[in-house]
Amino acid sequence: MKILLLLLSLIVRSSQLMLNECGTEARRPKVSDIAVKCGTSSIDLAIQICPVIYTGYNETLLILNHMLDPVCRATLDDSVTPPVARFNFPLNMTHACGSIFRTTSSAGTGIFSDFSNIQTVNISGVVRSVDPTTGTITYNAELKYYYSCAYPLEYLINNTQIDVSASSISVKDNNGSFISTLSMELFSDSSYTQPLIIPDLGIELRKNVYVEVKATNLTGQYHVLLDRCYASISPLPSNSSFFNLFVPCSKDQFTTMIENGDSQSARFHFPAFRFIEQQNETVSTYYLHCITRLCEKSTCSTFKQCNNRRKRSTLDTSAEGITSTYTITSPEIITKTETTESKEKPIYANEEDDSAVGLGVAVGILAFACIIALSVAAVFYKRLRN
């Protein structure tokens, strides 16, 4: 009885869009009446309201996953044609208006062929109509609108520029992406407050480059975990020369991991280096790439274990794999091909010449002293004979 009174009160508060205002949109419901937008921090549902009214309901009688919480209720939007009932709820397991979260795993393909466990989270639910009719029978059909969003939890990101294809809206389900929440920044200090400024002549070799990959406006249930980071001469991870800063269960001896899989940011640093094949050029230019996983907080630790990963000696860098994994253009990292020491070598040569001159002077003085000593000795010898 309380639920019925609540529903009746909701009907009174409805905007009461009339059926005669729907025009040609006054018809029986269709499967295509729901549109789903899978955002980075929330999911938006839009259900055409005129077929709902035609069936005997309104937006207040559409219930999302049996949730009567006001934040999970629909709002009428008659500013669009045709008018719709909108639902919006966050991507959070605690406040997702009863949505079901399922995480599935499968072997990686394309650019992720190095990994045997690639996760995808699927978020699904249903919007049902609630019939306010009392009695034994009703003439209103029951309405059900199912939705689902699938989000891959593995991405290839580079530096700061992000290039993401616009998501298309599907009928019942959709594929979403968290890629727009991810970014990579380079810093010059260990506190990660001073952005790295790279001069035209490049940064000094062995200068520490501090890297941060972070997620912004991402639901709090996921952490950022770097699976692999590497540098390549090409801005895209194609068939050019590359150098692994770290791969699963292994890293370069000069790469220092500071934080990984423990929060919504991952940090590491490495000393600037150069590619040998660019030795005849004034500067060495390369690009940084990171394969990034979004893992649920409770499962991040399992992906740090080597027995859950698969090593491969080669990298699949086909254009198809790159496109399907949101490859992003990277700014260039420039290092000097000559160190300060090499430029100072002529100074060391001058110092050697000065030393040779000094040694010659010292030998001349010593020879002169010996001559004087011999002369004095000869004088004393003559006096003793006389």
Task: Please characterize this protein's 3D structure.
The protein has helices at residues 2-13, 49-55, 319-324, 340-343, 345-385, and strands at 34-38, 42-48, 62-64, 75-77, 84-90, 100-106, 118-129, 144-152, 154-157, 173-175, 182-187, 208-215, 222-232, 242-247, 250-251, 256-259, 265-271, 283-296, 333-336. It has 386 residues and is α+β, with helices and mostly antiparallel strands. A hairpin with a 2-residue loop joins strand 14 and strand 15. The longest helix is centred in the last third of the chain and has 41 residues, at 345-385. The N and C termini lie far apart (150 Å). Mean pLDDT is 74; it is low at 1-5, 159-173, 308-329 and 340-354.
What features would you highlight for this structure?
386 residues; alpha+beta; 6-stranded antiparallel sheet; 5-stranded mixed sheet; 5 helices; 19 strands; rod-shaped; disordered N terminus
Strand share of the residues?
25-35%
Helix content: 10-25%
Shape: rod-shaped
- Low-confidence segments: 1-5, 159-173, 308-329, 340-354
Biggest β-sheet strands, sense, barrel: 6 strands, antiparallel
Radius of gyration: 36 Å
Total strands: the figure is 19
Order of helices and strands: HEEHEEEEEEEEEEEEEEEEHEHH
* Cα-to-Cα separation, first versus last residue: 150 Å
List the total number of helices.
5
